[in-house]
Amino acid sequence: KQEVTQIPAALSVPEGENLVLNCSFTDSAIYNLQWFRQDPGKGLTSLLLIQSSQREQTSGRLNASLDKSSGRSTLYIAASQPGDSATYLCAVGDDGGTSYGKLTFGQGTILTVHP
Amino acid sequence: GAVVSQHPSRVICKSGTSVKIECRSLDFQATTMFWYRQFPKQSLMLMATSNEGSKATYEQGVEKDKFLINHASLTLSTLTVTSAHPEDSSFYICSASGQAEGFGQGTRLTVV
């Protein structure tokens, strides 16, 4: 059974810092890995999707890497801003039929960026 | 991303009553919809997968008679929590997949 772990559980940083969120998974036979953002009381926003054949994806200040063989992924956030404050979820896709199907989520990292 | 609308966003109900949650894909057809549940300080857990026009597939440990899922059209799936109890209080969220993909906004269910 796939298990996804995220470290740290919570992180508080001053504005402007670069930071790294970590995600590890136990079964390397994955189809994809995604990083989501969840704001309080709201749904999920997909930030980056990495297919199993890829090693990284970038979007603006965000960069996600994937090392499938070691079961690890990192989300790098550059020049953090207060608006980045949210819960960040890592999810592994075990179903090749869809990128939103049968996702196994980590417990999330609660990020607080203070001015 | 694609727009998926989930309703209601919050609901409080009395123990023993049933609650229906709707998940709609607004700008695309969704052949498959997924229902997840998130308890406080825990990760999202997949409850069931529903394909349009067929019975839902439930994950181990999820009672199919308690959590009724209907996916009668390509744009709508419903989750009905029957005879709700306080332990069913949770955050329920759907995702839709087909011509596009997206997550709903989630429903905070509180059973009192």
Describe the structure.
- Chain A is mainly beta.
- Chain A has strands at 4-7, 10-14, 19-25, 32-38, 44-51, 56-59, 62-67, 72-77, 86-93, 103-105, 109-114.
- In chain A, the strands form 2 sheets. In chain A, strands 2, 4, 5, 9, 10 and 11 form a 6-stranded mixed beta sheet that branches. Chain A has a 5-stranded antiparallel beta sheet with strand order 1-3-8-7-6, with no helix packed on it.
- The radius of gyration of chain A is 13 Å and the shape is globular.
- The model of chain A has no long low-confidence stretch (mean pLDDT 92).
- Chain B has strands at 4-7, 10-13, 19-25, 30-38, 45-51, 57-58, 67-73, 76-81, 90-98, 101-103, 107-111.
- In chain B, strands 2, 4, 5, 6, 9, 10 and 11 form a 7-stranded mixed beta sheet that branches. In chain B, strands 1-3-8-7 form a 4-stranded antiparallel beta sheet, with no helix packed on it.
- Helices cover 0% and strands 56% of the residues of chain B.
- With 112 residues, chain B is mainly beta.
- The chains are: A mainly beta (115), B mainly beta (112).
- Chains A and B meet through strand 5 and strand 10 of A and strand 4, strand 5, strand 9 and strand 10 of B.
